[in-house]
């Protein structure tokens, strides 16, 4: 998966190579212990070599200058705040590989990345940012699940190779991220907690809360007020099973809406070289997350639907009806067609939904050509949206025109949630009209509609 | 995940490196814009440097010759049809790295790959095929889901490294595919749309259509003709839930049949060095797809089964029966054993089915040793087939011998679909007989049955 | 995904390069055939060049010495037992790249790896271990599912590059595993069959067997003895649907117990630098497998629950009850609340369970930062455990205090299985107390509690 060409002078990796670690804190100790276990010799550089606390036994401790001179590779396990003293060691560190493993407590604390700062302090050294994305546990105990890959970056190729060799010996796989200018990104990586999921998650929570209270008032509290009947037990399953599919369908249509908006924007502008507005850009970048959350809600909807017949309430009502009626009712073929179609369309929609989810897995989407990927995510995606919308229309059936559906002048939840997917599907249909499709294709192939005094040339500059 | 060793003369990556782009069309513009954003300087080579349409602002435009001389790396963003004029630039392009990003409109349009043609035109340059598998969108906006990997190939290692460095800076990961002879494959890649899924998909559609009409006539139209009763509403769920499991079981057995055939062929021929006939080869290569489609149908079968109790028709019939009978019927223990076993075996079979599907995910199968992979796909696979077949036999139970099952002398669908899996399982059992197994193992370890005047030696030449 | 820099002298890959193969057995023949198909020329080294059995047609056969001298790269397709004669070829093999493709029949047959032994025999050659993890089928026919990656290791970087180039041309991707000391691991790889799954699988089988017999005696045999009633048909679904959730919940809590134990151990010892006892280490390393098996059992539980209403037994009982009662019973709101909450909590727990399973997929966990990974696996994991435990408590409801639940003085299965998860959750709650949490955080950041005459310094040495 990666390249570990060792560019040592002899061409052969020396066993028992000597590595230097600056800093005797937790990180330095963990790393040193692991390096010793792997077969390296380790020398620590310390301000007070004789009183620096417990260190792994077979490690030597020296002054910074002496330690630096004894090894070609120096791990900097010091907080960035204390980097400045390294400047005085510039002569000893000249030509050495400095491995910056530092992380900050929060993002954007400093204008430049720690590794860039280090490189600026000691221009004669070859700074390589590495290992900072690993947990201290992984550094001490070797790779585990989310700690297999060492990302590194740096300006000098041979320095990066040298660090690669060490990382490989420690059992990690290496992923080169380019020059030291990528350090900022690497230093932000361990601090992030699903940044691209935040907006979709907030949206999901907001929609869920809204529809929960809307339906709570409309379906349960209203019954209590009108009929003084407590049906609050319905919150747990019936209400949840109304909220989940509603949120799922809205999220799914929100996943396809930005693509449609972008297409109309390109048609309106007559060029594809103008940047989209920021909100649209951000929206398009979280489509995958929107879709996956929608899938999660759909999955809950499926399970909530399937447990219906084993619910106490349903069993009770069924036997109550049977007992009270006690006669064979009329079989309604239309009803049978409608409900069976409703279930069938729903199942097929969910199957396609799952297919979209599976092709979103990194290893699957990496194996697809982009033509295949866009076929599935765009074509099959819109078909999925159509199935799910149709499923909801079948659920409504003839209730759309019945006044009794609009209790207190509010529409039921499933009618509200049909607005957005219907709009998306209609707009998408418009885009599929031959004349519109042809214009859009031309624009996406680079053609530009030119006005006499346009400024599309400048639009390229972004 | 990849190697970005930059072999520039200094060993250090220069910021603001100058790159050249030939061609000012859409691709050239997109690529140039992105390179400028990433921090490169860009010079365009154009036939008409002063009237070549809108280009990114900070880019220079020169004649082809001048542009080529100013940079070491030249992106060829020209259609293959126009490559011939490049021959005149051979002196200026000598020793340069030429990045061929071109794609063709369809496969096999030309006898040789575009990159090979380019290399032949300018033998003194180092041609690298790269970036052609990315969408124009990804080239302009950076990596996204199915656009993370840049495949490249070329004869010169240093040239490939130089292109790797650029690709990494643009945010992509690089996958080296070897020498320029791999260019054909890379150029075909973006044109493909699930080539290995076509045969299995066609098969699935064919089988589904056949069994749909077979059961439509046998179960629904026949009732209409005989009893003048319209039960067409059953198409949506009941009929679908007969067709899906039938197709699933047949597809699953088709997935294991070629392996059994291949084993018998090797036993018959007494050698493993003879190539299999083409049809068998092609069949074996789409086993994974056959299995995954079978899993999809099985998944639909599960959902269609689970919604049975919430169907209007089923609820109606249940209450109708209760009302009409109005007495406690006898409890049939055999019936309870049989149906519960039927469900239980089905569930376990589906669980194993899913396990097979999960281990087919690229990232999971890559993490397995081939002994583990073949254990799951072959041993567990045949156990899955056994469970699913047994599940179907339990469904039939004693109906196989009842004449009433064979309406109009046609067997029910599930009997038809049992033929193939039963054959596969019997053949597999034969192969597991110790004496047969021993012969086969010997053959697979390289042993050959030799006849006095055989031609097995020649069989090696393929 | 990997690096194939070819360090041939010219910088250009020569077509029709000559490669040498020692050994004319099955492996040598398969490999040679494939190399010839890929465009290499092949020469075999053999003891009896004129009577060595069938070989691919275009291949030459020579004596070992002559063959070795004609090529730079020599594949050693000989059993380790016969390596010793290679020592006599040391002069001819000096400076050559020797590719060791050998595997052993079982682990730990020899004190040193085959490749290390080979390197010791011929110190002047550059031994590279490679291709041994592929099946013979893949070597002959090219990459397929679990046979895409060639792992290699060796002391010489250029030798590894040369082998990488060949592997890439054969269609494989290359993963460098470091120096020749990694050969042992590579040679053990093809022999392994889910080593990390054994302990969890045995545990799962043991727990399943125990609870199966426990519940068989308690729920079915006891009824037979007391009431002479045969309800053995319940084994297939009812009993299974008791055993599966019980085992699932126990396995899930076993997945989180070691983490809690480790935390208390660190608190007790006042340092994180002391190694955990071996049993705890081994336990922690199989947490992922424990969790995935637990998910499998939970999945079966879900399916077994969902088919309940279509079971013959359940339908029979329902209609029997309806018929026998024949009056509208009282609706019990508490019962409705309780059962609906029970289902709802179970569904949400299963949803989270699935989420944990999905993030365990290699490609997904690789894409997460370890902060994200530990958030999901630890925080969400404990929430999942809480949901599932709560689900089981809701199932028990008020039966915990009823004497009638304890037939024959034995508690029902679900009560037994609640012990472990309850303990884990209580311990975890203790760890979340601010004062405990603070101490633990300090310890995990490297702080050590020091006693006047402690030996924690030595504890570092492991």
Automatic annotation (TrEMBL), chains A, B, C:
GO terms for biological process: copper ion import; iron ion transport. Its cofactor is FAD; heme b. Residues 246-377 form the Ferric oxidoreductase domain. It catalyses: 2 Fe(2+) + NADP(+) + H(+) = 2 Fe(3+) + NADPH; 2 Cu(+) + NADP(+) + H(+) = 2 Cu(2+) + NADPH. It is found in: Endosome membrane. Residues 20-104 form the Pyrroline-5-carboxylate reductase catalytic N-terminal domain. One of its GO terms (cellular component) is plasma membrane. SUPFAM superfamilies: NAD(P)-binding Rossmann-fold domains. Its main location: membrane. It comes from the Eukaryota. Belongs to the STEAP family. This is STEAP family member 4. It comes from Anabas testudineus (Climbing perch). The lineage of its organism: Eukaryota, Metazoa, Chordata, Craniata, Vertebrata.
């Amino acid at each position: 998966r990666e390249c570990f060409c060792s560019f040592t002078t002899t061409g052969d990796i020396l066993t028992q190579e000597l590595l230097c670690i600056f800093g005797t804190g937790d990180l330095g100790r963990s790393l040193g212990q692991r390096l010793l276990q792997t077969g390296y010799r380790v020398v620590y550089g310390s301000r007070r070599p004789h009183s620096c606390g417990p260190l792994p036994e077979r490690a030597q401790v020296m002054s910074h200058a002496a330690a630096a001179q004894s090894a070609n590779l120096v791990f900097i396990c010091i907080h960035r705040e204390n980097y400045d003293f390294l400047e005085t060691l510039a002569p000893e560190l000249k030509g050495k590989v400095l491995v910056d493993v530092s992380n900050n407590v929060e993002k954007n604390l400093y204008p430049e990345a720690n590794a860039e700062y280090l490189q600026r302090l000691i221009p004669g050294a070859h700074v390589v940012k590495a290992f900072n994305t690993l947990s201290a546990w992984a550094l001490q105990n070797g790779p585990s699940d989310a700690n297999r890959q060492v990302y590194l970056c740096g300006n000098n190729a041979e320095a990066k190779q040298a660090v690669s060799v060490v990382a490989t010996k420690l059992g990690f796989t290496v992923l080169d991220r380019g020059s030291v200018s990528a350090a900022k990104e690497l230093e932000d990586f361990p601090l992030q907690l699903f940044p691209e999921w935040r907006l979709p998650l907030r949206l999901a929570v907001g929609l869920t809360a809204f529809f929960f209270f809307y339906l709570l008032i409309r379906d349960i509290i209203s019954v209590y007020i009108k009929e003084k009947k407590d049906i609050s037990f319905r919150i747990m399953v019936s209400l949840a099973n109304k909220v989940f599919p509603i949120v799922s369908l809205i999220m799914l249509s929100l996943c396809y809406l930005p693509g449609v908006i972008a297409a109309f924007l390109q048609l309106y502008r007559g060029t594809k070289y103008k940047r989209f507005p920021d909100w649209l850009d951000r929206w398009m970048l979280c489509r995958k997350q929107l879709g996956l959350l929608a899938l999660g809600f759909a999955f809950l909807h499926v399970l909530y639907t399937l447990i219906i017949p084993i619910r106490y309430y349903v069993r009770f009502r069924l036997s109550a009806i049977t007992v009270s009626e006690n006669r064979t009712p009329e079989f309604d073929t239309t009803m049978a067609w409608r409900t069976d179609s409703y279930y069938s369309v729903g199942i097929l929609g969910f199957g396609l939904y799952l297919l979209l989810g599976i092709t979103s897995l990194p290893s699957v989407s990496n194996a697809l050509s982009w033509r295949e990927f866009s076929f599935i995510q765009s074509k099959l995606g819109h078909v999925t949206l159509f199935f799910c919308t149709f499923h909801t229309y079948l659920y409504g059936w003839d209730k759309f025109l019945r006044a009794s559906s609009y209790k207190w002048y509010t529409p039921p939840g499933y009618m509200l949630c049909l607005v957005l997917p219907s709009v998306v599907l209609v707009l998408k249909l418009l885009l599929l009209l031959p004349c519109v499709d042809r214009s859009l294709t031309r624009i996406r192939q680079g053609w530009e509609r030119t006005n006499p005094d346009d400024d599309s040339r400048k639009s390229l500059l972004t």
